[in-house]
Write a structure and sequence with these properties.
The protein contains 6 helices and no strands.
Amino acid sequence: MNKRKQNYSKKRGLPLKLVFIISISILIGDAFIEELLFLFFPTIPDKYVPFIDALLLITLLLPVLYFYLYRPIITQLEETKRAEEVLRTLALFDELTGLYNRRGFMSLSDQFLRLSNRTKRGLILVFADVDNMKQINDTFGHAEGDRALICTARVLQNTFRGSDVIGRVGGG
């Protein structure tokens, strides 16, 4: 919100949106409660008037609570969850290649090793090294070195199964 709109909202008191929500709530809430009450109680004793007023107040406050308390909290929680997902991804995956990084690879490999021991089934570990990366970077530049790593990652992903663990444990 720009400064002019912020100043306008402060000068005018209640934001226009809040006034609109309360007005609609009064119209809808009052009509709804009256119809509902007359449906069940054709004549309303005086002792129920405070209850009816409280019910109307709750009806008025629900949209306000939703728009100004509940919805911002939910939005903040969703943003926090998205940020956690990004951090989790950064913690386990190599940003350049999209393969597991050292932490992710070691964690999953350890899990597969324990599973292999428990089920008494074999496990195969394949290790590949891209030779002369320093020479590629020095001769052709880091962009070409990155491209060599990305192409190598794609070849490995296309060669192995989706259930296999492929990681980049070297590099930065």
